[in-house]
């Protein structure tokens, strides 16, 4: 029986943005960047790090829309990301290499728990917070930069 699932963001809303020139992107608070390392550019569609030389957009994304914890933050999207990746009872490898903040919410968007931890310890921390039946979703963030990485939903 599956206990959780992780879905990358749908690529369709982001695809037209890559056709905008840099001035238009900048006017909307977005930036076009080229990855210059294999680990610093985690794509929220593919849930994988961009390879050096890949083009991405850096933009603000509203990832929590309910209640007093409403939040948005920066995300990267790879131009080459054609489909959203899906994981069941398995964490994307990009989460294991970062210092994480896990924030657990109930079905009404109320925060129930929060943890900061090394990504290598994420399985145990996720199991701990998901043991509470009131937890509906957990948001994973890069704890150092605050970037939203993914939502982990109860299956």
TrEMBL record:
It comes from the Bacteria. Pfam families: DUF1203. This is DUF1203 domain-containing protein. It comes from Lysobacter gummosus.
């Amino acid at each position: 029986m599956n206990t959780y699932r992780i879905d990358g963001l749908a690529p369709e809303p982001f695809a037209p943005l890559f056709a905008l020139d840099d001035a238009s992107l900048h006017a909307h608070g977005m930036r076009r960047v080229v990855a210059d390392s294999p680990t610093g550019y985690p794509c929220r569609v593919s849930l994988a790090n961009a390879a050096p030389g890949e083009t991405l957009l850096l933009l603000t994304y509203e990832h929590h829309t309910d209640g007093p914890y409403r939040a948005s933050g920066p995300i990267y999207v790879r131009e080459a990301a054609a489909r959203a990746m899906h994981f069941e009872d398995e964490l994307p490898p990009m989460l294991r290499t970062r210092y994480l903040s896990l924030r657990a919410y109930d079905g009404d968007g109320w925060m129930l728990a929060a943890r900061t931890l090394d990504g290598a310890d994420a399985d145990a921390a996720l199991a701990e917070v998901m043991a509470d039946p009131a937890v509906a979703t957990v948001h994973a963030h890069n704890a150092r930069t605050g970037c939203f990485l993914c939502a982990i939903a109860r299956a």
